[in-house]
Amino acid sequence: MPSVATATTLTSQLTTWATLDPQGTAVSFLDYDTAANGSQLSLTWLELDRRVAAVAVSLRTQVNRGEPVAVLVDQSLDYVVAFLAVLRAGAVAVPLFAPDLPGHADRLATVLADCRPPLVLTTRAGEQAVRDFLTERGLDPTAVSTVDDVSIDLADQFEEVRLDADDLAYLQYTSGSTGSARGVMITHGNVVANARQCATAYEMLRGHAVTVGWLPLFHDLGLVLTIAVPMVAGIRSVFMRPMAFLERPVRWVRALSANPGAVTAAPNFAYAYCASKVAEADKPRLRLESVHAMVDGSEPLQLAAIARFADTFAECGLRPGAHRPSYGLAEGTVAVTTTVAGTLPLARSFDRSALATGLLAELPSGSTGTVEMVACGRPMGQSVLIVDPVTHRELPDATVGEIWVTGSNVGAGYWNRPEESTATFGAVLAGGHEDDTWLRTGDLGAFHEGDLFVTGRIKDLIIVDGRNHYPQDIEQTVERGHEAIRPRNTVAFSVPTPDGERAVVLAERARSLSAESVDLTALLASVRAAVARRHGLALHDVRLVEPDSLARTSSGKIARSTCRARYLAE
């Protein structure tokens, strides 16, 4: 039996815990579809291990070692079993979603066409919908298998498949636009390494921590938090469906309250959304003093959202130091940097004019002409540099450049994209050795007094008249420019014009207002004036669009590149 320290795969770790603590609870699913207050369904370490082994035996009769197997299962215990069973069978998991996920059918078809799995896993309840989808999209040669009707007795027939750290475990498809979705090749060694880095950085000790989440399991952060970290650290995992949270955010907070030592993760918007939706009447029953860590990442961080959540739940005992701003990306499995445990979220005010030239120049808080940014902490067991994206030379502190990463968590490349893989995962520093390769993240940032500040994406940077403008900074100004604009549903990008690159803004109308009730002329004038005053930027075009009309990624973020492409196609 592999030791906790040396096991190289998630499933070998699972077997370890099934042997050491067979009756201990491994994973619990809170089902709000069958019970208004949530019905908790659980598997012990031994039950999970045997279910995974049984499905793995079935899989080995259907696919070969190293072949991709797509997981098209609703968020449930069956999803956890399906994902781990593919790994144990020696195949390559492709964590995806059921075809009825609203708004994402095209992306699902694109991903399946890219990886061409010979087998798709689903459940009996979802089987017909999956078969219909595959037929409609011309993918019907793909076989379909259900995981919830595999006999548990098959576990007795399992014969271990020898897996090495360098063998592929799964393909994590990035959440970009449907035309550019790329499958990051994550090895068994990558995911175990990053899970250990997370367990160390967030101090997740067995017997003292439990992960609690609602993020989709096909998303890198949801997958690692809910499945990978618990497997490696031997801690309990509790999760629910994303819709359960969106319908009633208090369910998330109640789960945190009910599980002492909770470690959770969510994008920045979720903290503000939750704070705005939880009723005062719910607070007296919430005990949040034992919440261990609340990871905040996956999108640009806004101190206002962090502060609102902290203020809302302070009376419930929530410690401000529990909030852990972090940075990561799928190409690094998920996590790269985080703040030091026990410290408060750190915000700094930087000169906007200096930032436009690529420098972080700190000014006193409240000064005019500043941009407030939240620190994403320090590397968690990896090496992180800021590099000039053109010359490939390392840049000094407080200078904005591309974030480069190297470590055992960095993926092996993109599935079936050798040239892109070399360009992204095989970067070499100027004057460096060709074997000393780095991951080019495509993100811009700088170190300031040891902490990483992420300023934006290279491809999203708006360069007008030689000055750099960060779209999220403009979007925040636009959202504050008029009450009819829906918060966190604005997109800014640049477009080519005869006069050079110019900036465009699309903003969704607030749900509570009808189009007829909005003075569009006044709104457009207000937005243009706010952006000109704060950024010194004349907008080429401003449009107020319908609620929910902006393109989004599978993880719910605004897809800037898709919005831009649609705008240019008009």
Automatic annotation (TrEMBL):
PROSITE patterns: AMP_BINDING. It comes from the Bacteria. InterPro entries: AMP-bd_C, AMP-bd_C_sf, AMP-binding_CS, AMP-dep_synth/lig_dom, ANL_N_sf, FAAL/FAAC. Keywords: Fatty acid metabolism, Ligase, Lipid metabolism. One of its GO terms (biological process) is fatty acid biosynthetic process. Residues 22-415 form the AMP-dependent synthetase/ligase domain. SUPFAM superfamilies: Acetyl-CoA synthetase-like (SSF56801). Residues 460-568 form the AMP-binding enzyme C-terminal domain. One of its GO terms (molecular function) is adenylyltransferase activity. GO terms for cellular component: plasma membrane. It holds the Pfam family AMP-binding. Belongs to the ATP-dependent AMP-binding enzyme family. This is Acyl-CoA synthetase (AMP-forming)/AMP-acid ligase II. The lineage of its organism: Bacteria, Bacillati, Actinomycetota, Actinomycetes, Pseudonocardiales.
